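Reviewer comment 2.1 asked that we show a complete input and output for one of the modelled complexes. We chose the adenosine-5'-triphosphate case, as it is the one discussed in the main text.
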Amino acid sequence: MNLFKVFLAEDDEFYGKLLRHHLSLNPDFDVELFTSGGDLFNNLYKRPDVISLDYTLPDMSGAELLRKIKKQYPEIPVIIVSGQEDITTAVNLLKEGAYDYIVKDKDTKDRLWNSIRHIRENAKLKTEIDRLREEVNLKYDFSNIKGSSPAIRSVFKLIEKAAQSNITVSIYGETGTGKELVAKAIHYNSGRKKKPFVAFNIAAIPSELIESELFGHEKGAFTGAISRRIGKFEEADGGTLFLDEIGEMELHLQAKLLRVLQEKEVVRIGSNTPIKIDCRIICATHRDLTEEVKAGKFREDLYYRLLGLPIHLPPLRDRGNDIIILAKHFADEFAKENKMDKVTITPEAQEKLMRYHWPGNVRELKAVIELAVVMSEGGKITESEINFSSSNTIQNFFNEKGTLRDFTNKIIQYYLEKHNFNVLEVAKKLDIGKSTIYRLIKNKEITINK
Ligand SMILES: Nc1ncnc2c1ncn2[C@@H]1O[C@H](COP(=O)(O)OP(=O)(O)OP(=O)(O)O)[C@@H](O)[C@H]1O
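Response of the prediction step:
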């Protein structure tokens, strides 16, 4: 941080110099002294970080100068130093925007020092918050969503349209296709980006808690409501509320949600007072909501209310070469994060990635690549480092063809690998005789290669 510029206005030259000397003992402060209000005012173009004003200056009162400064430079904090303690004047000055009111006595210079130090710390925090905000914006910038397939490019176009308007957005896509990423990209590219993005996953919260989580509750509204709590709608005020897994919401809650969306106000549980809300809704689901409507599991009126601008996120297996673009991106990102050298993916490994059907989509690809980077040697990911996780292997397992006997053998093989080839333990777990396992090993129907 640069030097902290302090302007002092003090008509008593000796006292002014004393204050300047004292404050200048802090090497971070750059102090400039003025003996009149006009002189100080004419120098404001130098943008001081803080101003300390004597209340009685020769050419104008401290209150008058405070007003002039606040009108033109409302962000500069102003401290008033006064020869007399007058509570009414102090309160009025604070109301008009003064940061502090200090009475002249033997402690003035220390109090002024402390007050300026507080202002400086707040300024530092503000800079830090602005920096983090900027970082978040960059992080969820569009460029964060990788891919150049026609399918993803048409998604980009829709994100752009959504960001430019306030329309409700509904995102449909299988698990791990990037629904939350898209919701964030819309928010952080929209006029609401400086306000909160609040994500709420309906499937992750027990249904009896959803209502109070979304709409809030008053103290004592129900057993366990030990204090007042604002809901997600209020939390997202001015910003965006991302309702993930909307298809999992129970019918009676759907009716309540619909009312909130229609009235644009929420009533906390245990209260009668409606609270106006202004938040943009983005919802997401992996279910086909039209089917849910047909089956009577999702209200038709809510469906139309939420549909807004629909964005369909294609599964990874339909994005062609994006699989490789994403894999290279994750490999670079992961290597950088772990301060490793660049890792490349061999053509054979790329083919293996392209052949797989990615039931967990981009999330799964990310996990597979991260593991492959860790396992890689000599800066290369080869075919053998590409391993699909066990849950996916199970998915694959059901997609494979085979007799019941083939499936049984695979299950035994899987358990043996999982339990470090301990035949007794596996026999117990699967409730089969250990001789069955030994027979399969002997007949080479299953293999033991620790
Ligand atoms: N196109 C993409 N480019 C880069 N990273 C992506 C992309 N799509 C998804 N990801 C990453 O994949 C992971 C899963 O994405 P996200 O959580 O947005 O998926 P989701 O569809 O919301 O998942 P779920 O259905 O489980 O809620 C995240 O780490 C995200 O950053």
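The chain has four domains: 4-133, 142-312, 316-392, 401-442. We note this here for comparison with the apo prediction described in Section 3.2.
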